[in-house]
Amino acid sequence: MNQGFGEVLVEVTRAGVVESEHKGHFVLLNKDGSVAASAGEIDSVIFPRSTVKIMQASAMVRHGLKLSPEQLAMAQSSHSGSQAHFDVVQSILKGAGLDESYLRNAKDRPLGTAEKEAWGDKEPTRLAHNCSGKHSAMLATCVINGWDLETYLDPAHPLQVAIRHEMQELSGRPLEIVTADGCGAPLFGMTTHSLATAIHRVTVSSDPVHQEVISAARSYPVMVAGVGRTTTVAMQRVPGLYMKDGIEAVEVFSMADGRTCAFKIADGGLRPFAVLNKAVFSSWGVDAGIDIAPIMGGSQVVGEVRTTLHL
């Protein structure tokens, strides 16, 4: 279980004084999967949220799911909710002979800022939820295998048993804590270290399933997140990069050679992401085009957001 809130990973300064701190758990893996750097309690349980979608998609492909690369990127997406995203989700459902009425995920409005503004005051829908791509793929997998569609979110359902097995194989640890994610799908507790290990193993795997899934994400980064979002922009900019974020401030990313990073910010806030991402990419000699906003006092720069890590 959780042992604490981790170590201070990021500081916010004003006039040279530390005004705020962000604690968390952080791990950086070498090409061979060994730990290059860490902070916090990397072997304490966290909820990895949407960072595990690549593993869920791998389990589905392993059990017969056949999608185009664009659709497969959507299957592991936390999409912004553009019309392009909706079209791909609906194409997955249509390919399985289904429609939106079969989705059992939570209802929501679009995740992206521009997309939410365009949505206006319309009611939330299951299609608009950022996890609808994953759920449409789950349903398609059930159709292929003749599994019950109504109960596909039950942890004991054959689909979820298969996903749990895939995640355990990749992380190398049993998944003993199960709850529900915000979308309604089963959510398993993992450690920051085991999460990083799983992403590393997918990245360097010679398994055609893993390579098909990660290649789809790299090829269609707009489907994985959305126009202008860091996940999408970084993958567009850096060849071979895989990146995925999760709500409550979880992040994973890996280079094609196996170098991998995973972190969880204890307070659930996103402010530390840019500085941590930039620090890791810089240590790898990679320019991912990530900018860090300064701390302003009126029109003057009076402070900074900085990492305490030495990478």
Task: Describe this protein's structure.
The protein is an alpha+beta fold. The protein has one domain: Beta-lactamase, CATH 3.40.710. The protein contains eleven helices and 13 strands. It has helices at 53-62, 69-75, 83-95, 113-119, 132-145, 158-171, 192-204, 208-219, 221-224, 230-237, 272-283; strands spanning 7-14, 17-29, 35-39, 45-46, 178-180, 186-188, 190-191, 242-246, 250-254, 260-265, 295-297, 300-303, 305-307. Strands 1, 2, 3, 8, 9, 10 and 13 form a seven-stranded antiparallel sheet that branches. A hairpin with a 2-residue loop joins β11 and β12 (300-303). α1 (53-62) crosses α6 (158-171), α1 (53-62) crosses α8 (208-219) and α2 (69-75) crosses α8 (208-219). The longest helix is centred in the middle third of the chain and has 14 residues, at 132-145. The chain is globular, with a radius of gyration of 19 Å. The mean pLDDT is 97.
